[in-house]
Amino acid sequence: MSKPGITIKGIEELLGLEESGEEREFSRLSGYEEADASSIVFAEDQTALAKALASSAGLIFAPIGAPIGAPIGVVHEEDARVLQVKYPKHAFALCGRWMDGFEPVVIHPSAVIDAGASVGCGTSVGAGTVIEGGAIVGEGCTIASNVTIYGSVVIGDRVLVQSGAVLGAMGFGYVRGEDGSYVRFPQQGRLVIEDEVEIGANTTIDRGALGETRIGRGTKIDNQVHIGHNCRIGKNVVMAAQVGISGSCVVEDGAVLAGQVGLGDHVHIGPGVILGGAAGVFPGKHLEGPGQMFMGVPAEPVKEYLKTMARVRRLK
Amino acid sequence: MSKPGITIKGIEELLGLEESGEEREFSRLSGYEEADASSIVFAEDQTALAKALASSAGLIFAPIGAPIGAPIGVVHEEDARVLQVKYPKHAFALCGRWMDGFEPVVIHPSAVIDAGASVGCGTSVGAGTVIEGGAIVGEGCTIASNVTIYGSVVIGDRVLVQSGAVLGAMGFGYVRGEDGSYVRFPQQGRLVIEDEVEIGANTTIDRGALGETRIGRGTKIDNQVHIGHNCRIGKNVVMAAQVGISGSCVVEDGAVLAGQVGLGDHVHIGPGVILGGAAGVFPGKHLEGPGQMFMGVPAEPVKEYLKTMARVRRLK
Amino acid sequence: MSKPGITIKGIEELLGLEESGEEREFSRLSGYEEADASSIVFAEDQTALAKALASSAGLIFAPIGAPIGAPIGVVHEEDARVLQVKYPKHAFALCGRWMDGFEPVVIHPSAVIDAGASVGCGTSVGAGTVIEGGAIVGEGCTIASNVTIYGSVVIGDRVLVQSGAVLGAMGFGYVRGEDGSYVRFPQQGRLVIEDEVEIGANTTIDRGALGETRIGRGTKIDNQVHIGHNCRIGKNVVMAAQVGISGSCVVEDGAVLAGQVGLGDHVHIGPGVILGGAAGVFPGKHLEGPGQMFMGVPAEPVKEYLKTMARVRRLK
After folding, report:
1. R_g over Cα of chain A
2. Per-residue pLDDT tens digits for A169-216
3. Given an 8 Å threshold on Cβ–Cβ distance, is A146 in contact with C150?
4. Which CATH number applies to B165-307: 2.40.128.10, 2.40.480.10, 2.160.10.10, 3.30.1490.270?
5. Would you call B97 helix, strand, or coil by DSSP?
6. Is the pTM of this model over 0.90?
7. Minimal C-alpha gap between B8 and chain A (Å)
8. ipTM of this predicted complex?
């Protein structure tokens, strides 16, 4: 963790602020309790700001319009530690990402990277991770320990894969014979993971059967998520832990799936749709409406869902 | 992927058709878009057949009675590429299985196979996979990378285990003491996996406590399924992703469990029963009826379930 | 499995019984079918006791007041194999724990323990397991094969971690930017696992974002459980398979969560609360009541839940 600190000048560049000429430097991102003069903290409202000001933090990101503090470079009469920014939490996260850029790049000697696999510059590969022949991993990725990447996988740049994830395994497609036994349908397609996707621990994403499975740019996937074969997941989609997506689903850009959501096969989730925790969508259904939240099993618009709940409980 | 091609003669043998004496050979199984003269494709209905005929595929499996095409060996006046078979998709899958038979058998040098473990002929073991002393793995199996097989496990022939699966871990059985603390019940039994079972990525199947856990011949299990200790799963059962089966359940032959289904402990699912996605069965319950579908939590016959749903939504 | 046997004297010490001077020794814990003269079995009621007496077991733990048998050391006129104890199953489990104490301590040569990691005396580490620099693992632990322990993790003594578990991965916290893309919130906290916790196969527990995630002493966690960042789980909590706990939840001492339970973020589960299988709790909710069982989604007290179910089915 001997990352370099970030200077006020660096923060200004990161956030697109004017240069103030200030030269202070901060080496840590902290909660209020652990903060010291080397720490940056953030506050999103007045209550938080009061706590931040009471802490020993060296720099506080506060929302514009906060009664205390002033734009960077202007020595504020009350507290020069406060830097007003449009989105304090976002600014804090951007500093974190900047610092992460200094993580050393290491391919652990115990990683197994087959001769026929390709791993881009600046990509780290953890201990015990297996990258099979045919797989392509882009630049600046972090592949943690004990990950498995089958040969059918193409990964873009700046992708994070946490431990235990299995990418590109065979999908679950079988054809039943007259005697009741099952023969596996060919599972020979690809899995394409676009730039800046992040994938949680023990998540599994299967490759396409004949075609491809695709995870769009910037999509974030939590732990223990399952995505079946031939799914097409859009850009900047969010899936919380234990979501299960059956084969051949489409989830469009900006959709949000809370924990334990389940989609039957061939489900289509429109752009920006929000699915509440443990919501379930039956096979073949299509849900639409940017910002529209759906809940329950089968999932219905939240207004309907709450009405249904209320009705059921009013029953005598 | 330098597998040999399959000849018309080979296909005839595989499907039990009469020999036509044709000598064409096909090296790929394809979707319509990627198909070329070396490809086999399949069609299950007229719409699909039209697409298949418009593709460059070299051979098309079509259903008997399809208006275009003729039995193999008979040069059809319209399109000699069409081979009418009883079950086109099944025929296509059988060709895939035939081709898979030529995958090279490799025990990766990084696999850890304890001295006391036994691995049969023709079985591949992937990188980073651990097979502990006492375990027995049969012939012709494919054990992918980063799998863990505890010493308590006996695996039959032609079994597929995908990456990250954990077989034979200790079950979840505890005895509570007077002080509120828990002592683990002995978990010293076995896990027996019969021939031709297929197990998905990151699935976990626990060994028996004192007795055994058993997965019957030909059963297919998707990713992230959990099967607790002392379960007895029958033959040709299908379990989709994220199914969770508590300890001491019985699931009989030919049952189908859709994604995220949950069974409490000591549940008994009769032969051929179908459980819809995310259905839940309370501990100790017994569901019966071949081909009968159950849905909801607690699971009820689909007819009842749909009535209940309709009633609830009709409420004012 | 060449563990030493346990003597009557050893059992008396373990259970706090008076010394009888008996010298018999037993090397196995068995079910009735497999029992022989070297076996201990247990019975909790009359039916079980009849079966136990019909078996070849050398020693039978039976409940006090059982009509057959006598306190240890008193040769019973009917069957000297019976040892009456307050909690026969608990006694049986304690013998199992005693025997487990003789498992050999092995750090497998393929385990990757970074130079900066610390592993206590008497701790076993399985094949392919990765313990990253910074991690601290206590004494007398069993870390199975293919486990991943990130550098942010502190583990107490006598902890069991089964295969495929991932401890201390980055939590799922993101901040959305104006362009719809997400930046990861810093995930730099710790995961603390107290003494005697047991963690199932393929379970994932994330480290804190800025603070810590904590699992209290004696808590038992089944397979494929997910616990998000910044959760605080109390002592002697039980979580069955596939439970999913979102970030910043509190689960207090002695709570019991059945399989597939889901908690939204910032949920608070009071001490001793019981959540039935697949119950779901909405974000921010607080459930209280030692011994009180909650069921359904959203979870309600079991009495209410059963009423609701009955009402819905009574609808015409």
Report:
1. 24
2. 999 999 999 999 999 999 999 999 999 999 999 999 999 999 999 999
3. no
4. 2.160.10.10
5. helix
6. yes
7. 19
8. 0.95
